[in-house]
Write a structure and sequence with these properties.
elongated; mainly alpha
Length: about 60
C-alpha cells in the first residue's frame, strides 16, 4: 500500500512539475514564485504531519 502511495506521489510530482514549467514558459509565473509556492506547500505538509503526530500521541496517552 505504502509503495503505491509513494508511486502515486512521484507521478503527481511529474504532473505538477510539467504544469509549473508551462506556467513559467507562458510568463504566468516566475521560477521564484514557483520556489515560494513549493516551499509553502512543503511547510503545510510538515505542519499536517506534526498535527497528526500530536493527535496520535494524545489518543495513546
Amino acid at each position: 500500500m505504502r509503495q503505491n502511495i509513494e508511486m502515486d506521489g512521484a507521478a503527481a510530482w511529474i504532473v505538477i512539475e510539467a504544469v509549473l514549467r508551462r506556467l513559467v514558459e507562458r510568463g504566468l509565473m516566475t521560477w521564484d514564485e514557483v520556489d515560494v509556492l513549493i516551499a509553502s506547500a512543503e511547510e503545510k505538509a510538515r505542519q499536517k504531519v506534526l498535527e497528526e503526530y500530536k493527535a496520535e500521541r494524545f489518543r495513546r496517552s
